[in-house]
Structure formats: structure tokens, C-alpha cells
Design brief:
Layout: H1 2-9, H2 23-42, H3 60-65, H4 70-96, H5 101-114, H6 117-127, H7 129-146, H8 153-176, H9 179-211, H10 216-272
Helix pairs in contact: 2-4, 4-7, 4-9, 4-10, 5-6, 5-10, 6-7, 7-8, 7-10, 8-10, 9-10
Length: 277
């Protein structure tokens, strides 16, 4: 019985793309793609003199290839950041619903002000998405409180607010899904770049010590490796931090909309109902 009631109280799930829960497969796929890109695109013999990867590169692709074994790791992080950005964009698009969120919130508040709950429910059905699901759950709690005798008005308002908060908590995991991975890539990109830079400089100084400064080619290879890894890691962190901040801002806007509508519903009930004798 308790399970049935919990399911009945839960908001309807948003229709459409909900996000990828098993993000590990995205990372695995990006790693495979990164290794293939490193071996067959960057390591294409056409990118090097005489078609030999052991020789000097003739273009930027060959130069990046010379960055060494750290390059596929950085490319994996970059591909993962891009893939998760696309995944989050699609998921949040579903969460926001079909129409513009500010207009939907304004229409809901107007319907509540007019006391037209049928219109408010229709707006939710048309909008769909996370906000519409939560508002629908709050409207359901509103109607239940109207039909529930023997409770003080403050208790009923608290019940409506509780239903709103519970519905919000059910939706939040979908909104926050995979965001920690994006946040981690921000740091990992920089740290991996630093690691690749140090490895490149170690190779440069080793070549310098071995040849007494005479082999400029060996020295340049190490410096090139260091700089390529630095640039690649910075690019990866840049993409990840922009994506992370952008989607965090989108989630905050959606959360503010939820809070605004939830407060309006509770205040509407308090204003339209008197204390029971």
C-alpha cells in the first residue's frame, strides 16, 4: 500500500531524453576514439618527412603526435567533455520543457491568481519537463488539501510545500547527472597537461645531458612534447569549465523557477482559504 501511494505521489517523468546514466561507457568510447585519432590521424605518415613518424613533422597534426603518450589521455578528456556537453544539453532541453520557461512560470502564476487550476494543469501538460512535473505534483497536493478536513491551514500549506520539495528532489538527480564528471575534467585537464609538460622537459634535459647540447633535434622533440601537452590540456580544461559553468547556470535558473512557482502555489492556498473552525 505504501509503495502504491508513493508512486501515485511521484510526478510524471519528463518525456524525451533523460541523460546517460552509465557515463563510464561514454568515457570508454571516447578513449577508443582518442587512441584511433592519435594513431591514424595524428600518426598518419603523411604528416612526417619521408612518411616516417620517427622524422620531423611537416604540419601541426604531426607536431601534436610528437607530444607522446600523454596526448591520447588528454584527447580522451577533451572528447569526454564534448560528449557530456552534448548529453547535458539534450537532457536539460527535455527538462526545461517545450515552451520558454519564464513564460510558463508567468502563465502558471496568472492562472493561480485567477484560481483557474484546470488551466494551470493544462499548462503543465502542454509544457512537460521538470518544472511542469513539479508544478503538477504541487497542484495535486493543493487539491488533496482542499478535500482533506480536520487539518489547520498552516499544516495544509506545509503539506503542499512538502509535496513540492519531494517532487523537486525526485527530479534533481536527472538535472545533476554527469555534472561531477565535467567538474573533474576541469582539474584533470590541467593536471594531465602539467604531467605531460614535466615529462617533455625531462626528455629535453636528458637529451641535453646525453649530447652535451649538440643534438638540437632531440632537444626540440622534448620541448615540443612539453608545449603540445600544455596547450592540449589547457584547451581541454577550457572546454570543460565553460560547459560546466554554462550548465550549472541553466540548472540554477530551473531551480529558481521551481522555487518561485512552489512559493506561489503555497501562498495562493493560504490566501484563498480561511482557518477551519
Amino acid at each position: 500500500m505504501a509503495t502504491t501511494q508513493a508512486k501515485a505521489a511521484a510526478p510524471k517523468k519528463s518525456q524525451g531524453f533523460q541523460g546517460v546514466q552509465a557515463a563510464i561507457w561514454i568515457i570508454v568510447f571516447c578513449f577508443i576514439a582518442a587512441v584511433c585519432f592519435y594513431m591514424f590521424v595524428l600518426g598518419n605518415p603523411a604528416n612526417f618527412k619521408e612518411g616516417d613518424t620517427a622524422n620531423e613533422p611537416t604540419n601541426m597534426l604531426g607536431t601534436i603526435y610528437k607530444g607522446g603518450i600523454v596526448v591520447p589521455v588528454i584527447i580522451t578528456l577533451l572528447f569526454t567533455a564534448i560528449a557530456l556537453s552534448v548529453e547535458r544539453a539534450l537532457a536539460l532541453r527535455t527538462a526545461f520543457g517545450k515552451g520558454k520557461l519564464p513564460k510558463f512560470v508567468a502563465n502558471i502564476k496568472q492562472a493561480l491568481k485567477e484560481g483557474d487550476f484546470a488551466k494551470a494543469q493544462k499548462l503543465c501538460d502542454d509544457q512537460r519537463g521538470t518544472v511542469a512535473n513539479v508544478v503538477g505534483a504541487s497542484l495535486k497536493a493543493y487539491k488533496e488539501m482542499e478535500a482533506t478536513p480536520g487539518m489547520k491551514k498552516a499544516q495544509k500549506v506545509a503539506k503542499i510545500q512538502q509535496a513540492h520539495e519531494e517532487a523537486t528532489q525526485l527530479e534533481m538527480p536527472t538535472l545533476q547527472m554527469n555534472m561531477p564528471i565535467l567538474g573533474t575534467i576541469v582539474t584533470l585537464g590541467t593536471l594531465t597537461a602539467l604531467f605531460g609538460t614535466v615529462v617533455g622537459m625531462i626528455r629535453s634535459f636528458a637529451a641535453l645531458a646525453a649530447t652535451g647540447g649538440g643534438d638540437s633535434a632531440a632537444l626540440s622533440v622534448g620541448i615540443s612534447e612539453a608545449l603540445v601537452n600544455t596547450a592540449s590540456g589547457i584547451l581541454t580544461s577550457w572546454v570543460a569549465v565553460v560547459a560546466y559553468n554554462y550548465f550549472t547556470n541553466k540548472i540554477d535558473k530551473l531551480t529558481y523557477a521551481l522555487d518561485e512557482v512552489g512559493y506561489s502555489i503555497a501562498q495562493t492556498y493560504e490566501a484563498n482559504h480561511t482557518e477551519e473552525a
